[in-house]
């Protein structure tokens, strides 16, 4: 196969860091491959991938070289680079330049000097291929996160590149938009033969599409090969074992070996059917313990941004003390708006939200932040100091803590932020910003903790770490209200769940009933085993009971 | 009762942006070429009817309420400042100073007020028929770089405003509240938030620039995609508007619908106003006529 990208002894160190992020990397990527690069936060996935595109190459000390089509990347002209390598980033809102979809698609082709007739021909072809034809004259601002990321992909694809690089493209999308995005990406790979190189934390949806997995660990490549073979390497690692797709975890639990380990729901179901595997339910059935009094009670909440349509529409909610309620729903369904109202940051046009019988937005700010902590889905908008330490100290002062130095130090240790205390909160990674946001929210030991997408940008290991912290906080009496796209996290930690739809919350149900009865918005385990064990939502909920009949089982 | 047309289905909205831009330029100049009361009143009627067709009566009524204050202010100031000519309609004296309400002052003030209201109405209509993306398209044909710069700047400003709202809301969680406290503390907090916002916008702008670069910006001489097609009906509309506009200019050169002195404002109808009214009305309701022809041609 034609060698498209070649990396020879690449070592790279950022100017502010003492040790290299990646060291002596050797790699060849051939035309037509679908490569997933996985690794924990800070393992150098993005750094490595950015070296495949001249315009994205980071500043720092570099050794070794990268060749694109046997040509050193530095010798590639800007035009060659644009036409050979496409790039789609994590945040869908950062890439668009123009105000409508059609202009955004034309932008790339205008840059490379295509004539107007050719631009139109390509837009017509691509828009129909990707199903964007109905969106062409829509304003970019009016698109959902999923639609916007598709437009970003299209605006790169329209240049007909040989390879598309994607840096966690689904990190900010809801589950259904994520699934759709990966389906489109798979079509682009399968039908057009375009090489895909993608970094991703959440391997559940994407690993089954890939024909190659590269694991980054300890500055180097610890595994490079077929995805299902890499899963065993990952399982053996204390951090990377959390990256293993949940479907695969079910089959890795017993002391048995499946030569073709399933990595998708469909593969898992085929294996179960072929080998007549039986699973038994071993999950807990205890009901979630919550208090009898409501910490928060909302009645008839109605909110509209444009006074034309209601984002929140006559919404009622009672949140008992000690509960952990997760709200799930599509991008743009109004979850964040609801949380900001319930945190007293926004006043709805109609209805009341009371925190212990007081209207939440009428509680003086200084008092409210001592009882209600809020983590936004963009934590950087809650920052404002020069260093992480100063950020925490200022919050400690605002909260009038008794021993601010000591309490800040304890929080730094608890959230593993000690290596970041002197860094600017705006310069640290998205995942680290998320942890700093949590640290700010937990400084006070709040009665109500409101979290908007707390796992955004976190790798599975850090998610687990955060989950345990929040679990402890919840068990010590703090009520948690959370909006999340992360079905696995919600299934594992929350006590109740509700679906946000049409401006209101669908029935609040215990987590197991919620996911057990959902069909689309549910966990991979429930999708895999709903016929046998309808209430199973996590890998630990089931045990493989039968030995099966296949000779392939050893 | 006249109903608002679904805007995207109208002939006027579908006209080539350059045609619509030329038409609005001609209308705005034409409105400035006449200053007689009858022409101004009929011009106002013509614009109101056309606006209702494209914007709907609710939007026009809202605009009218906003313009009314402006209109009354201009009339009042004219009556106060123009005391010289007659006939006098009413007068009174206060502390030795005599105030005269004269017919020329009232009529001239009303015309000036109406002309300003007409301008606002014309721009209101322009805003709907030529939204920013179409306007940018018109400018891009002349100077593509400026067109692109306008789009990028507009997006940045939009993001800046949106982020400022978000930021001021979320900073309440840090006990920074722009709506509470003394003026000095609010100014201090506002300044602090602006600083954060500027840094954030700069970082986000840098990332956008990097991604523009990744999509080949500056790799070759930029071409321009002509999103809009030029149809024969565009020629027909443009020619009709330009012929009408040319006749209006000729009429104006012959002093039709124009007076150089306030003293001449004694009658509602003045010499040659019929022609001025007909031409201006024709110009203003031209889109409606085109709409009618467009619908007659429907199969």
TrEMBL record, chain A:
Its main location: membrane. It is found in: Cell membrane. Belongs to the ABC transporter superfamily. GO terms for cellular component: ATP-binding cassette (ABC) transporter complex. SUPFAM superfamilies: P-loop containing nucleoside triphosphate hydrolases (SSF52540). Keywords: ATP-binding, Cell membrane, Membrane, Nucleotide-binding, Translocase, Transport. Pfam families: ABC_tran. Coiled coil: none annotated. It comes from the Bacteria. One of its GO terms (molecular function) is ATP binding. CDD domains: ABC_cobalt_CbiO_domain1. It comes from Lentilactobacillus kefiri (Lactobacillus kefiri). This is ABC transporter ATP-binding protein. It is a peripheral membrane protein.
TrEMBL record, chain B:
The chain crosses the membrane at residues 12-34, 40-61, 68-85, 105-130, 235-253, 274-296. It is a multi-pass membrane protein. CDD domains: EcfT. Keywords: Membrane, Transmembrane, Transmembrane helix. The keyword Transmembrane helix applies. It comes from Lentilactobacillus kefiri (Lactobacillus kefiri). GO terms for cellular component: plasma membrane. It is found in: Membrane. InterPro entries: ABC/ECF_trnsptr_transmembrane. The keyword Transmembrane applies. The lineage of its organism: Bacteria, Bacillati, Bacillota, Bacilli, Lactobacillales. This is Energy-coupling factor transporter transmembrane protein EcfT. It comes from the Bacteria.
């Amino acid at each position: 196969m034609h060698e498209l990208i070649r990396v020879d002894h690449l070592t790279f160190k950022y100017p502010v860091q003492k040790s290299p992020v990646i060291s002596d990397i050797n790699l060849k990527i051939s035309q037509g491959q679908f490569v997933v690069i996985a690794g924990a936060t800070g393992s150098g996935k993005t750094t490595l991938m950015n070296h495949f595109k001249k315009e994205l190459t980071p500043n720092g000390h570099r050794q070794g070289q990268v060749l694109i089509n046997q040509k050193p990347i530095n010798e590639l002209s800007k035009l060659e680079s644009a036409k050979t390598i496409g790039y789609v980033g994590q945040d869908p809102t950062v890439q668009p330049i123009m105000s409508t979809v059609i202009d955004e698609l034309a932008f790339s082709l205008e840059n490379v000097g295509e004539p107007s007739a050719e631009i139109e021909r390509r837009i017509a072809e691509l828009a129909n291929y990707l199903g964007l034809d109905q969106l062409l004259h829509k304003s970019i601002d009016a698109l959902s996160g999923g639609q916007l990321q598709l437009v970003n992909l299209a605006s790169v694809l329209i240049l007909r590149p040989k390879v598309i690089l994607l840096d966690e493209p689904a990190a900010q999308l809801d589950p259904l938009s994520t699934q759709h995005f990966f389906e489109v990406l798979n079509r682009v790979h399968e039908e057009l033969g375009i090489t895909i190189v993608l970094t991703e934390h959440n391997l559940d949806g994407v690993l089954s599409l890939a024909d190659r997995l590269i694991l980054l660990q300890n500055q180097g490549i610890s595994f490079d090969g077929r995805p299902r073979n890499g899963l065993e390497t990952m399982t053996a690692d204390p951090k990377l074992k959390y990256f293993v797709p949940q479907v695969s975890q079910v089959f890795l639990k017993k002391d048995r070996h499946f030569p073709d380990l399933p990595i998708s729901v469909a593969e898992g179901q085929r294996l179960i059917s072929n080998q007549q595997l039986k699973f038994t339910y071993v999950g807990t059935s205890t009901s979630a313990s919550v208090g009898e009094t409501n910490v928060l009670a909302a009645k008839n909440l109605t909110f509209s941004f444009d006074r034309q349509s209601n984002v929140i529409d006559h919404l009622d909610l009672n949140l008992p003390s000690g509960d952990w309620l997760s709200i799930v729903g599509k991008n743009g369904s109004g979850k964040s708006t609801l949380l900001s109202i319930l945190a007293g940051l926004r006043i709805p046009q109609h209805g009341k939200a009371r925190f212990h019988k007081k209207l939440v937005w009428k509680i003086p700010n200084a008092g409210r932040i001592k009882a209600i902590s809020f983590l936004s889905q963009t934590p950087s908008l809650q920052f404002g100091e020069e260093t992480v330490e100063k950020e925490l100290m200022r919050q400690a002062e605002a909260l009038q803590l008794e021993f601010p130095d000591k309490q800040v130090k304890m929080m730094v240790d608890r959230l593993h932020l000690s290596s970041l205390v002197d860094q600017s909160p705006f310069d640290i990674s998205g995942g680290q910003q998320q942890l700093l946001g949590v640290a700010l929210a937990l400084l006070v030991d709040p009665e109500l903790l409101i979290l908007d997408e707390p796992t955004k940008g976190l790798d599975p290991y850090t998610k687990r770490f955060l989950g345990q912290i929040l679990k402890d906080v919840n068990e010590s009496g703090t009520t948690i209200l959370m909006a999340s796209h992360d079905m696995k996290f919600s299934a594992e930690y929350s006590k109740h769940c509700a679906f946000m739809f049409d401006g209101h919350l669908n029935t609040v149900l215990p987590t197991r009933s919620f996911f057990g009865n959902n069909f689309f918005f549910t966990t991979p385990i429930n999708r895999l085993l709903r016929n046998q064990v309808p209430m199973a939502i996590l890998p630990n909920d089931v045990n493989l009971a039968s030995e099966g009949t296949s000779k392939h089982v050893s | 009762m006249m109903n608002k047309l679904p805007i995207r289905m109208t002939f006027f909205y579908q006209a080539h942006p350059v045609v619509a831009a030329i038409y609005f330029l001609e209308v705005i100049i034409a409105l400035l070429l006449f200053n007689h009361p009858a022409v101004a009143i009929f011009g106002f009627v013509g614009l109101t009817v056309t606006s209702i067709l494209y914007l709907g009566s609710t939007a026009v009524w809202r605009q009218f309420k906003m313009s009314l204050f402006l209109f009354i202010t201009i009339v009042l100031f004219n009556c106060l400042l123009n005391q010289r000519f007659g006939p006098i309609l009413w007068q009174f004296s206060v502390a030795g100073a005599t105030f005269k309400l004269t017919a020329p002052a009232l009529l001239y003030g009303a015309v000036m007020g109406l002309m300003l209201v007409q301008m606002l109405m014309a721009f209101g209509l322009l805003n709907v028929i030529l939204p920013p993306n179409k306007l940018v398209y018109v400018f891009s044909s002349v100077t593509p770089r400026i067109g692109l710069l306008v789009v990028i700047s507009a997006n940045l400003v939009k993001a800046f405003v949106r982020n400022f709202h978000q930021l001021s809301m979320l900073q309440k969680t840090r006990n920074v509240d722009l709506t509470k406290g003394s003026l000095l503390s609010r100014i201090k907090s506002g300044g602090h938030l602006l600083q954060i916002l500027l840094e954030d916008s700069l970082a986000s702008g840098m990332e956008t620039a990097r991604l523009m670069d990744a999509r080949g910006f500056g790799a070759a001489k930029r071409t321009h995609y002509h999103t809009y097609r030029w149809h024969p009906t565009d020629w027909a509309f443009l020619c009709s508007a330009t012929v009408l506009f040319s006749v209006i200019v000729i009429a104006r050169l012959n002093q039709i619908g124009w007076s150089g002195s306030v003293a001449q404002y004694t009658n509602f109808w003045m010499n040659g106003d019929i022609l001025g009214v007909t031409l201006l009305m024709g110009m203003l309701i031209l889109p409606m006529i085109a709409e009618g022809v467009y619908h007659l041609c429907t199969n």
